[in-house]
Every structure is written in structure tokens, then in C-alpha cells.
Amino acid sequence: MDLFNNLALGFSVALSVQNILLCFAGCLVGTLIGVLPGVGPIATIAMLLPITYGADPAGALIMLAGIYYGAQYGGSTSAILVNIPGEATAVVTTLDGHQMARNGRAGAALGIAAIGSFIAGTITTLVVAAIGAPLTKLGMLFGAAEYFALMVTGLVFAVVLARGSVLRAITMIVLGLLLSTVGTDVNTGQERLTLGIDALVDRIDFAVLAMGLFGLAELLRSLENPEARDVVKGAIGKVLPTAQEVRQALKPIFRGIGLGTVLGALPGNGAVLAPFASYALEKKTAADPSRFGKGAIEGVAGPEAANNAGAQAAFIPLLTLGIPPNAVMALMVGAMTIHGIVPGPQVMTRNPDLFWGMIASMWIGNLALLIINLPLVGLWVRLLQVPYRLMFPAILIFCCIGVYSINNQAADVIVTAFFGLFGYLLLKLGFELAPLLLGFVLGGLLEDTFRRAMDLSHGSLMTFVERPIALGLLILALIVLVIAVLPAVSRKRDEAFVE
Amino acid sequence: MTLPVQKKKSRIRGGTGLASGPRTMNGVQRTKLLSEQVVGGAVIALVSVIALVATRDLESGTFAEIGPGLIPRILALLLLILGVAVSATGFLSKDRGDDDAFWRWSPRGIVFILGAVVSFGLTVRSLGLFLAAPLAILVAGWASREIKWLELMIFAAVLTAFCSVLFRFLLNLPIPLAPWLIGY
Predict the structure, then answer these.
(1) Are A454 and B89 within 8 A, CB to CB?
(2) How far is B42 from chain A (nearest CA, A)?
(3) What is the rounded distance in angstroms from the CA atom of residue A72 to the CA atom of residue A271?
(4) What pLDDT, in 10s, does the model give residues B141-161?
(5) Which of the residues B53, B73, B113 would you substitute to probe the A interface, choosing the one with the greatest number of A C-beta atoms within 10 Å?
(6) Which of A387, A396, A411 has the CB atom closest to B113's CB atom?
(7) Cβ contact (<8 Å) for A405 and B101?
(8) H or E element: which one contains A99?
(9) What is the ipTM of this complex?
(10) How far is the C-alpha of A466 from the C-alpha of A468, rounded, in Å?
(11) Structure pTM?
(12) Which positions of chain A have pLDDT values less than 50?
């Protein structure tokens, strides 16, 4: 019964006129920016962060969540229409989605993606609400040592579940941790690693780093390749899929939701894996696997539902334990901090209206997506036909204004340019940037919990071994890491992503 | 449609100078010495050395009394080890990764995109959005080979007007518009 009372509280917050408007506005602008090819959810959220400053904390977070769903859906739209995924999780959608578009069924592909996402959103909202309270109670029992161990475990999961080399992903996480120590040390007031640069004394702002790495560096990378956009020309077709297509898609949608919810709730970045797993599952269980890759609607519906379920389940570790499982959630932490809310189990008891309001707004956000996007598909198509030579100066100026507005510091803009260059260099050298941002955001929390654990144990590292929960988590992390680098398993892991 | 695209691609790769030179001379050796991973590890190691030098004056303290330098120093050392390990695997591995992408730089993009961002940072306070934004847009426009001046100038004017209304008036962000003219 608690669940329904809580949800009722949530909906009373989320259904205020102001918050509904914020949620819709967030979805709309999120889709608007997210639909631009090469602009993923991370860049979109970082770019649009300043527009939430005017709202109260609950409203701002509701709007941000709306931006997030919008950006996710926008990424799928550009994957289907232009064959350019906005981010890793939309890669799968390009396979069959773009083929459907070429067969003149772009409307049906976009429609089933929206419908699948909506069903996924509805179910996952209930799951998040149901799991939220008990997990939060568990989180309350955790001390500094347990938190430290949990974050280490989360980072290990994030490495193992990511694409590409385990070694290089760990390297990026440690680099992110190191960058998080730049600036004035909270405990002693001494400056660390500032290299005499004034702009770094106040620590590097997470949005500055995110915008440099995911806005500018990506922009530089896309300028390398002369425009080769394959925008679907001609008719989009009816947006509503036929009854037969819906029947075909229904089971994949529910299987996708199951996969997405379980994987997304892991403390590591499981959500990334969900669409890949769903696509592989659908292809394996299909009566006629050869249809896949040629425009099978199951290949769009399943992964899209898994993607959205995973995206939303990723809120579970953030809202209950205060630990962001991926780079997007890391941005959410930054946004919460800007509004004076420290993420963690105390949020639910201290700001219940915010906690449940945000959960309820997830469902409203998904509804908004459905209402906004289906009629507006034509608009997105026209937007995608804007030539890149005009699109990138616009992206750039939004980045600049966004960064400047964070602290009204012109120096931040120049630091962003530096990180753009640095991020581009890292991309060229084959490093992924998402683990860096995750390490950066968790760095402050990790250092803080480590110091508190050390204070409590009077400097004995044995505290991590003597406390059973901490020890268990660290052993789990170690086992997962060892298994992942075993040759047999790592080959399997590569295959899973190639699929 | 495809012909001009291919032309441009070859121009970019030829333009870097790095792309064609070493490969035709001695492909095998370049792969061994300068593969993406080897250089990547070296860059990481360099960053960690800079961090170690920068933390040399900070006290480490003990685990019971943690000083400001302890955590950055541990992380920098860890990063050094990882950087060396990445380089080493690059030497040992036969997998060359996406070497082509590594050698295909876009100097034009770097100069004009980053130049545009820096110019915005330097001018937004003094000149305000009315001038800083069109300046940045015009500089950024150079990054593309397909630049069309008239179109870009009209676009810059429209975009600046749009941003001014959106950020200053609708969202109330305190970004200066034209301090030299209207005082804010």
C-alpha cells in the first residue's frame, strides 16, 4: 500500500501545471537536440543543463529527465532515418530500423520505437517505485567503507560491461579519478594539480568536462569525415504500425523490457548492454533469422524497449544509493548538486516530494514522448536535412553559451576548448570517453568515503576486510574482473558486441 | 553524388602529411613503433608524470592522517602503470586497431572549432552575445570546406537573435548581450 501512497504523492508533484510543462518542454528540446546526428544524450544534457537553472529542484530534475528521454528517442530517430546512431545504445536500431526506413516503413519503425519505449517506460516506472524504498533502506545501513567498496564494484562492472579493451577502460576511469582531484582539496584547503591556472582552483566543473569531451571532441571527429549522410528521402509512411506488425513486436517488447530492467539496475553500466542482448535474443529465437538486418520489426521493437527500460532502471542505483551507474546518470548527479541536493539514500526521506515526483515524472515523460513525437516526425525529418555546415556552428554556440552560463565564467569556456582537444586526442588514440566521465564524477565520492573510512578505522586498511559487506563487494568486483580478462570469456564478450 | 565525397576524403588524408608518408616507406615498422595503442599509452604515461611532478610539494600524510597529496599521487602512479601497460600490449599485440582513423586528423577542424570556442570565451564578457556569438559562428564556419559566406552570415544573425531571446529573455540567464551599447 505504501507503494501507491508514494506514487500518489509523486503524481501530485509531477502533475502540477508547471511540472507538466517542464516535462513536455524537456522532452521537446531533448528530442530537438538529440535528433542531430552525432549528438548523443550526454552532450544534449550537458548543453541543455543551463535551461533548467530557473526551475525549483524538483522541476529542474523532472525537466532533465524529460531531456534525457527526449535525447534517447532523438538518437533512435537519427539512427532510423539517417543511419547515424547518436550513441552506443542506438547502434542496434540502425540495423533493422534504417532498413525499414529504406523499405518505406520509416513511420512504422519510429512508431513502434515510440510505442515500445512507452510500454517499457510504464513498466519500469512501477519497478523503480517498488524497488526504490527497500533498496534505500539497505543504503542507509551502509557506512563509508561499504560505500567505497560498492563504488569500486560499480566501476568494475562499468568496465566489464563496456565495449572495447578492459585495460583501456580502466585507464580512462583512473584518468577521470585523477582529474577529479584537481582543484582545492576540501579537507585541507590546499590547491592540488592546478598547475598555477586560476580557472582550475575551484575544481573542474563536470559540465565543462562533459561538454568538452562529448560536445566538442565529437564535433571534431565528425568533421573529419566529409558529409556522407544517408537521409531517407521520400515518404515516411504511416506512423502507426499495422495490427500485424504490433502483434509481431509485442513479445520482443516485453522480453526487451525484462532484459533492460535487470541489466540497467546493475551498479555498473548494464543499460548499454541491454539493446545488444535483446537483438541477439530476438534473432536467436526468431522462426526466420534471415529477416534480421533487412528490416525486421522485432529488431527495432525489442532493442528499443530494452534501451528505454535500461535507461530508466539506471535511475535505481542513482536514486537509492546515490551512485551513478553511467555517464548520463553522472550528469544527473552534477545537476542535483547544482540544485543543492546530495544524491543518496537520504534523498527519499529528506525530499520525498522530489524523489517520488521524479519517479512519477518518468511515466509522464514517456507519455509526452509518445504525444510529441508521433505527430512531429515530419519536423525531425526536415531538421535532419539541414546541412551539417550550418548544424555544427549551431551546436558549437549552444555549447559555448551553456558552459558560460554554468558559473558565468568566461574562463570555463576556454577550459572546455582544452578538454575538447584532449578528448579528441584520446578518441584518436582509441580510448572511450564515457568511463573517464564516470570516473571523474565518482572520484569526489570515492575520495570522500575513503577518507571517512580511514578516519573511522584510524588508518587501518583492514577495515575493508573486516566489514563483511565491504569485503563481499570487493571480492565480487575482483571475481568479475578476473573472469572478464580470461581469454575465453573476453572473446565471448567481443562477440556479444559484434552481434 | 559519390564522386565529390571521395575526392574530399583523399584530400584530407593527403593533407595531414602523416597519413601517406611513413606507411609507404615502411609499413611494418611504423605499426610496431607507433600503433594507436603504443602512442596512447605513452600519452597517458606523460599525463601521469605531469601529475606526479605537480604534486611533489604536497604532503602525503599517513592513512590515519591523509594529506592532500596522497590520493592524487596514488592515482598518478596507478595511471603511470596503466599507461605503460597499454603501450606494452600495443607492442606485443598483432591487432593494429583502427590505425587508419588514428592517422586521419582534421587540422582544419581543430584550428577553427577550438578557435571559435576560445574566441567566444575571450569576447563574451567585453563584447557581449551580440558580437561574440556571430564571431564564433563565423570562425567555426571555416571548419567546413563547404562554407558559403552569405548563407553563414545570415545564419549567424538569425542564430544570435534566437539565442539572445531564448537565453536572456525567456530563461533569464545573466549573459551579457551588448555591454558597450545597452549596458548589460
Answers:
(1) no
(2) 10
(3) 12
(4) 988 887 888 999 999 999 999
(5) B113
(6) A396
(7) no
(8) helix A91-100
(9) 0.83
(10) 6
(11) 0.84
(12) none
